[in-house]
Design brief:
This protein is of the alpha+beta class. The chain is built from 4 helices and 8 strands; from the N terminus they run E-H-E-E-E-H-E-H-E-E-H-E. Strands 1, 2, 3, 4, 5, 6, 7 and 8 form an 8-stranded antiparallel sheet that branches. A hairpin with a 2-residue loop joins strand 6 and strand 7.
Length: 158
C-alpha cells in the first residue's frame, strides 16, 4: 500500500470527471460532500450476461458524479474506491511476475480521496488467503505509478 499526493488537482479532476482515463475501473463505492452528502454503492443489481463483474464501471457513474460535484464552489470532499476489472487481473498479474494467481486475488484497489484541498491516491490489495509475501502489494503500487505517469498525472509519494 502506498499513498500518493496528486500535484495538479485541476488537471487530475478533469481527467477523473471529464476524460476516459479511469473509465475501465470498477467503482465499488463513492461518496461526495458538497452542500449535501451523496453516497453511491457500485454493486450491480442485475448483471449483463457478458459482464462477470459485480460492480459498475466508472464510465457509467462518471457523468452522475460530475453533476454532483460541479458548481461554483469546490466540493468539501470526495472519496472513490476503484477496483481493477476482473478481465484485467490475469494480464496484470502476469506482467507483475508475482507468485499469485487470479484465484488468490480478491481485489486490486485504488482509493481516491479529496479533502482539505489535496487529492490522495492510495493503493490496496486484497487476497483471499493470508500471505506474508508483499510482492503483489509492491508491484500493484508500481502499476498505479506507471498508470499515472502514462496519463501525465504528476504525483508525489507521501
Amino acid at each position: 500500500m502506498t499513498s500518493l499526493t496528486i500535484a495538479d488537482i485541476k488537471d487530475f479532476t478533469g481527467k477523473l470527471f471529464l476524460a476516459e482515463v479511469f473509465d475501465n475501473f470498477l467503482t465499488t463505492e463513492a461518496e461526495f460532500s458538497t452542500t449535501f452528502q451523496v453516497t453511491l454503492d457500485g454493486h450491480l443489481l442485475e448483471r449483463e450476461k457478458d459482464c462477470p463483474d459485480e460492480y459498475v464501471r466508472w464510465k457509467k457513474i462518471r457523468p452522475l458524479a460530475f453533476q454532483i460535484i460541479k458548481g461554483k464552489q469546490l466540493p468539501k470532499s470526495f472519496h472513490i474506491v476503484f477496483k481493477l476489472a476482473g478481465e484485467n487481473v490475469p494480464r496484470t498479474l502476469q506482467s507483475m511476475g508475482v507468485p499469485f494467481t487470479e484465484e488468490d486475488v480478491a481485489g486490486l484497489y485504488l482509493n481516491i480521496r479529496y479533502e482539505n484541498h489535496q487529492i490522495y491516491c492510495v493503493t490496496g490489495c486484497s487476497l483471499r488467503t493470508f500471505s506474508l509475501d508483499k510482492s503483489l502489494e509492491k508491484e500493484w503500487d508500481e502499476v498505479i505509478k506507471r498508470f499515472l505517469r502514462h496519463h501525465q498525472i504528476p504525483f508525489e509519494e507521501a
